[in-house]
Automatic annotation (TrEMBL):
Keywords: Hydrolase. SUPFAM superfamilies: HAD-like. It comes from Candidatus Anaerostipes avistercoris. GO terms for molecular function: magnesium ion binding; phosphatase activity. It comes from the Bacteria. The keyword NAD does not apply. GO terms for cellular component: cytosol. NCBIfam families: Cof-subfamily (TIGR00099). The keyword RNA-binding does not apply. This is Cof-type HAD-IIB family hydrolase. It holds the Pfam family Hydrolase_3. InterPro entries: Cof (IPR000150), HAD-like_sf (IPR036412), HAD_sf (IPR023214).
Amino acid sequence: MSKIIFLDVDGTLVDYDCIIPESAVTAIRRARASGHRVYICTGRSKAEVYPELWDIGLDGMIGGNGSYVEDQGQVVMHQVISLEQCRRIVDWLHERKLEFYLESNNGLFASEHFEEAAPPALKEYRRRKGDTDVSEVTVASCFPDMIFGGELYRDDLNKVSYLLGSYQDYLDTKAHFPDMENGTWGGVGETALFGDLALKGINKGNAISRLLEHLNAKQEDTIAFGDAKVDIPMLEYCAVGVAMGNGGKEIKEAADFITDDVTCDGLFKAFEKLNLI
């Protein structure tokens, strides 16, 4: 029976050096040749889904942690932060002197000093993911197409990420924007490196539900793969949830089973175990 497969990108399909294991490419192509559908389900906006990902062969994508759904090039759903909400967020972050970037399908738009302020946090993020040499980590290496000097008051945003000076910055932002979905990433609790803001009710599980309605497909035929806390809603929603070996404790506890690390052919081994290839 054909399955519908949902893959997180960073830490699941792509390793922390932004390399796609060849075994993962082989697994996806064989699965699709066998009649299964494969979608990426990622925090990235479409602007960050580079040609090497599409070239693998995908049926579509869920982006912005669930704010955008696309099937075979057709937009199924796109919920964006309003221009008014964007103004409030940008003005607040400027007032707090917190550097940020705006995530849109049309590009990533950095605040005035993000390029100089972000490298320490990006290097620490990579260290925590097991990278032993972070000397070459820069904003350009992590976000090659980031736009500097662009318009910051926008009506096309999926979400906003901002650098945390301290965990209190997140708590204050959460209190100031109770109408938004507030999260952190790059660490657990007070070790977080970034905060983020999105529309209320946005998550990967809800987006998968919308896609299944569009496809007239069944929840019982779904399989999800992820490595981070933000992936838990899709693992809980799908019939089978698989955590990567490099994933955190929380997602491993939410998974039906745990495969190997992304760099150790984890996707390929799981596809084999699930008889997808």
